[in-house]
Amino acid sequence: MSAGLAALPATTLIERFRAREASPVELIDELAERIGVMEPTINAFTTPALERARAAAARAQAEYRPGGAPRALEGLPLAVKDLIDTAGIRTTYGSRMFADHVPGADAAIVAAARDAGAIVIGKTSTHEFAWGITSDNPHFGACRNPWRTEYVPGGSSGGSAAALAAFEAPLALGTDTGGSVRIPAGFCGVVGFKPSRGRLGTDGIFPLAPSLDHAGVLARTPADAALLFGALAGEPPIVRAALAGLRVGLMPSFGAPRPTPEVAAACESAARVLEQAGASICETSFSLREPLMDTFAAIQGPEVVRTHSDRGLYPARRDEYGPDVRARLDAAAKVGPDRYAEAQERRREVEAEATRLFREVDVLLGPVASGPPALIGAESVELDGIDVPFRDVVMPHMVLANLAGLPSCVMRGGIDALGLPIGVQLTLANGEDWLTLALAAALFENDPVLQSAAPDPT
Length: 458
Known about the structure:
Elements: H1 10-18, H2 24-42, E1 45-48, H3 50-63, E2 77-81, H4 108-115, E3 119-124, E4 136-137, E5 141-142, H5 158-165, E6 171-176, H6 182-188, E7 191-194, E8 214-219, H7 222-233, E9 247-250, H8 261-276, E10 280-282, H9 292-310, H10 323-332, H11 337-360, E11 363-367, E12 380-383, E13 386-389, H12 390-394, H13 399-403, E14 408-415, E15 421-427, H14 433-446, H15 448-451
């Protein structure tokens, strides 16, 4: 099935709308047809909302006529993670406990997107309560990677990333507590941006671990991610930056398995592009008293338990959880308050060490994962002939940005021998959100691998 308008970047769609060479209604109709073809296989959407979207598109189309006043996102379709409240559209949080839940109000970021003219086209698949990195949901089925459907798209914002990769939407919203925007962006070959802590509000988003939670954006280009982030933040997008003199540090491994040669090559290629544009590449060190993942887990787990306990869900409705999330809750419930307090102290050390590091470098470059995504239903991937737990392959690369609240952007850095995308990640100092996106755009523009089109999943 030809993608047509559906494959165009959001920035190009806006140009086409303004020139009246295409219309929001035409785009919604094309997406509706495409979703109808793709969804039986991909399962990126939990709840499509296409009839409502077409009515909104007709209103948006009128703003592109003479005398209209189109807003920043006028007429652009937006897929929204099913953890984020949408007024009048079912929002399940990935749980059968909320299978019939229809919020009365939008989450803050959805309201901001609508105020900027975006059109919500549906809710996208997520891991149950966002606590997982596969988007293999026992209640609503597995979301599949459009590049190779026997593999997971990553999670927990897997549906948002898969919808973008399958050309079912040009823009999407997600959340990121331990990589949940960036992981699926990397595995699906799209752009995922987690801003600095608190940069986008989380009101109206079901919390996972409140002190680690971030709202984030997904798109197919850094310029599109900047367009969406700018609309949510109420600021004009900035997508240009000079690379001359930039100090690029290589992200510490934080105990992750050694990356596959293909992953290492993708990171080396990105480093070469930055270096050729005037940046300098340098080694980095990060001093910690305990492994980063131990600190992260000792904070995340108790906060999840507290969230679900406060809402009367756990342990009261323990049997209604899927087996993986139930097991994580049971394990986290055993973490005592002293360990949680100790982990928060370690976290302050992590933040201080990150501040020190960003006096020596301007940006950290690293992989999204040490290897490929897992097969659906598998708990491990093979690296160097050894089965390694999937979480160990991915999570050590992710959690620094959540613990320290750093802005981080992921994009495609290559394609592996399986035909799956390889994600690379840029992480900057707290508050450097626009520079993060600008550097991602500069890397994208300078690297032909990143600019090559994804294959049509059909």
